[in-house]
């Protein structure tokens, strides 16, 4: 007889799961493993709602395993630690992002790039073992994948940094778009884009937001501190900005042309994709050759870099703009997220609103 989510492990747990590709979330009793020697168990306080959660529950990437408990922007308070745990103690605030495991022995793991380990374990819907995410009352995780939460970083508005934050921070560092005085474009002003602006400004970089939506100009400039704003459909504006940027972080997951963005880059400029449109991009060689330009990608970040990012955020008072919601609002929140009707991230107030039945 196969084991059910409720009985496969010894410790009772409760959360919200999608049962099929309708993506509707509903309460679920399930179970988690006992606290191993290197494990940290924590009560979940807040969990961000990432756009990936919506794609995953609706099986947009054709890899869904149900029941699926999403959530990979998780913060909480430690309730139990294994005998070998050194990083944190009971009562400490901690975070877990997109990863809960990796092989720990390959070149990528050795270079603190667990995100590129071929055997890494995603926080939910993992293809390697069954994992359940942060839309749940508690988590248990190897201490290597636990982020120590800085004292002065808010828990609710800091939670989205664990995915959205590291997704934009890592490429700024890796591709060298982090030097004061540089000019970097941010395409798309959603969950990822708005924190990209904040990190770049903290690094002393001049930031231009590139968006299809002129309505976002005021917010981008006055609230987030962007230096300028480009409407991507406005040809004269785009033309005037040709060859002015050292780099661009493209956060957009909807289909859109890259050629106009490449033309905004100076020679040696870098266009970094962190959004994932379903249709392949058109990428002609000539605009890259004439200017030695580079188009690259980037996926979240390793554990060491995620800890560094979260400490940088605390130091520079960077948090996400959030709308705090109760657990039972999640299906409405998903409908609104589908329409981009959120400024800029929903965060679930798990501890105060997830009630076991
Ligand atoms: Zn995410
Ligand atoms: Zn590895």
Automatic annotation (TrEMBL):
GO molecular-function terms, A-Z: cinnamyl-alcohol dehydrogenase activity; zinc ion binding
Cofactors (names): Zn(2+)
Matching InterPro entries: ADH-like_C, ADH-like_N, ADH_Zn_CS, CAD-like, ER, GroES-like_sf, NAD(P)-bd_dom_sf
UniProt entry keywords in alphabetical sequence: Metal-binding, Oxidoreductase, Zinc
One of the Pfam families matching this protein, by short name: ADH_zinc_N
Domain Enoyl reductase (ER): 23-348
Keyword rRNA-binding: no
Domain of life the protein comes from: Eukaryota
Entry keyword Isomerase: no
An individual GO BP term: lignin biosynthetic process
Protein name: Alcohol dehydrogenase, zinc-type, GroES-like superfamily, NAD(P)-binding domain superfamily
